[in-house]
Amino acid sequence: MIIDTQSIKKVIGKSVPDRGQLIMILQNIQQEFHYLPKESIKAVSEYLNIPQSTVYSAATFYKSFSLIPRGENIIKVCKGTACHVKGADLIIDQLDAALGIRPGQTTEDMKYTIEVVNCVGACAMAPVMIVNNKYFGEVKCNRAARIAKKG
Amino acid sequence: MKIDTISKLDKWRKECHKKQLAIKTKVLVCLGPGCLAGGSDQIYEEFLKILEKKNIDNISVESIKKTGCHGFCARGPLVVIEPQGIFYSKVKKTDVAEIIEKTLLKGELIDKLLYKDPGTGTTYTEWRKIPFYERQQKIALRNVGQIDPDAIEDYIAVGGYAALAKVLKGMRPAEVIEQLTKSGLRGRGGAGFLTGRKWATCAKAESDIRYVLCNGDEGDPGAFMDRCIMEGDPHTVLEGMIICAFAVGSTEGYIYVREEYPLAVVNLQKAIDEARNYGLLGDDILGSGLCFDVKISKGGGAFVCGESSALMKSVAGEIGEPRAKYVRSVLKGLHDKPTVLNNVESFANIPVIIEKGADWFASIGTKKSTGTKAFSLAGKIRNTGLIEVPMGITLREIIYDIGGGVLDNREFKAVQTGGPSGGCLPAAKLDLQVDFDTLTENGSMMGSGGMVVMDDQNCMVDVARYFLNFLVEESCGKCVPCREGLYQLHNLCKKICDGEATDDDLRLMEDLSRTIVSASLCGLGQSGPNPFLSTIMYFRDEYMAHIRDKKCPGGVCKSLITYRINADCDGCMACLTVCTSDAITGEKKKRHVIDEIKCNRCGACYAVCNVNAIDII
Amino acid sequence: MVNLQINGKNVQAREGEMLLAVIKRLGINIPAQCQHEAIEPTGNCRLCMVEITREDWGGWKKCVTSCLYPVEEGLIVETHNDKLFEIRKTILDLQLARSPHSEYLQKMAEEYGLEKSSYPVEPDGDNCIMCYACTRICELLGKSAISPTQRGHNKIIAGPFGEAPPDCIGCLSCAHICPTDHIKWNDEGDIRTIWNKNFNLITCKKCGGKTITREFADYLIEKRSLPPAYFDLCDKCKRHETAIKMGSLVIKAREAAI
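^ Those are the sequences you sent over. The predicted structure of the assembly is below.
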């Protein structure tokens, strides 16, 4: 997938060229394109005047970033302690059965990506699923697939 | 309108308070994380929608307030009507019209929405009397669930920024630090370092630049106290930071918020913008000459960035690898300058300590752990939610009197405190006092305040494996003991869960843990083996069952259990629909059968069976 | 001057010195894989750990990495004891599991009685011990072509996307500073290959020998404001030419004097 560098630069340009903005800039790019396109590493490095390896290090160190294209719908399953104790694994297994993918994977038709998050702070409603930034609490495992597909 | 003098602030406060009093009835709709997950934002919208069209005496859209977490998450979505304190729980969007018609218009209570204590059968009309709330004492959470976090006037009306005014009017920086030291406040993020001493060290350090940082990373899974403060009362964090800036001599501050909390970022940014608009942040605050401004710095998804030196690296736009802290970050922190880093909850306490005085604060809690602590109750506990209690309260009181005991009346097995750096305490330890030192002396730690309750259907070896897996994923990878040590420790723990371990493996784990604890570079590694060490201390018999008998007493470890359908099966087909390995066969109304070879022990059938027809052997 | 005690001996050190420098000066041998005089210490390997205490600590001790701990007045230091031996042995044990083929590690491990790792070995494990010497020297040079990527056990030193690093100039500093020979490079004919990147080696205009990469030369010319033709001759031929020039100048001066 080739992304037009101009559109990447437009997103980058929204931030001040300050080194401390590195994570924020990468987040803005990911929000726009659903992942970090390869071209964005060089573009950010030029904008902030830091080595490409530094930008790439940050993109791979912080787990909220994806360097591979993600699906249209991002399904996040919380694996915090409370959610684990209340059956987060059951949700993951049900999603695998329904969509054929495990966390970190995307369906072939690029419709769904499953990711695991380490606690989103809604522990009282464990187990929690987030579909496209919408929260679902107390998810019973037999509802998981339906929630993922309906969103 | 710039509030550039203290007298203008006082005048504004009187106006805000008057406006609040004019609203005879307030309807508080909780938009805390739990209630939000239950759709409370739609309930809020529904109230506004109906009231925009309908005219009711004394009730208008101004009466409807969205608030942060009210606390009793297990009963959410919550709607609270003040001043009566009417507490409606498990509210649905379809109940809103009835609440308006019956309660707001006619003053009638809707019975089905009132809270009924499952233990005593008592129905409560007023939330303050409910045992869950009655035993709490709110300082850091005083405004959360009571005010609209987006409205600075709400904050002003309840006394917001009065502490700042008091400081700027008549206190010297050294006096502020003295009050803080006298109060005995210890860092609420987990380390429990004396806040006053930290500020004093920073103030004394020779430098032209100092920074004030707020740690909003809250990476401990199971903890959401800081999230609720940042979302529900963002101005209190700002006020605490400004007072700190005055005390230590700083002009620049950052709030580091983890990436998983986008709403906290939104609410904090709104509060910062509002504070700037009114001149409470920026140059010459309240005409005192103090200049201080705050920016938000977002995390990228890394638990290790809750560690102070890693956090500062992240703020500076680098990867969050901690450094050896032989020179403390209070002297050489962000950009190598003296930096105060305090937790969200610590800052939330500051305005109250200043207003009510150090002696008042020190009179609460215990001698060495003064004040209160916010906790998030989660896991197999009936009353999941957000609470704040005086230090020194026992685990039993929290879990049973406030928490309502174990969910579904099952047997209590352990309570996990302190996140991945903490440990699991068994039933025998329920009468321990909760404070910084007692829990540490008993093999756990208070940590940031997450408390996860486990019952007899949890496996403590699996819990240790879960935490070790978490730490392996979150390790920055810089030093050998953590990167390689925790990796091997986790693998060995998994071996136990799979029923493939020997006594020698256990001995190797204990030896390895010693090195990881002594030799790791940062707190993540140094406390990394704690999940294993605390569970082996109190639940050795479970480990031995896995190793010697190849059995999992909790019925969790997949390699060691079998699922079997018993005679109670009513043939409802529910388990068939969720089976992930096509292992269940059966017809409607006929007893189903699990093919034990095909079965992958995912547990879905057990979770959906309503008649207890599935045994875990 | 700062007074402290190391292994029971009273020692003096300069203010601001790290313990490791003092320990080495005393001729005490402790392992320190990630330490190198050319670069700032990072404390990655943990092998240089020592146990410290003070008289007023009531017997309480703490383990610190000597490469990063500054000397303090009144500090009492132990460089070898059972606890430290166990720490060093365990670290090498863990490293051997990940890098079973490293002769460097095997040799070090022998001193601690370790023939092989107590943990399941990674049969294809490479020899990288994640000491960061290569990234530190590359950063010091001003290039930062390679860096630590990923996190935790998956951490790997590489260029962006594991491909030929755009900023690498083929100077070989990383390969030379690497203690375990993990970084491979190859010179064949005119081409140097390192980090999956090919470079053209400069040929000396006089003797035809290969010197450094064009990229490295250009980097030095810019950084040190050298004449563009500076690297046209190799060092040996340059010295030879200079000697001839100097020689002819001396002859001219003598002739002028006569």
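Residues 410 and 455 of chain B are 6 Å apart (CA to CA). Chain B has five domains: 26-82+86-125, 152-362, 372-455, 460-547, 562-616.

Shout if you want it in another format.
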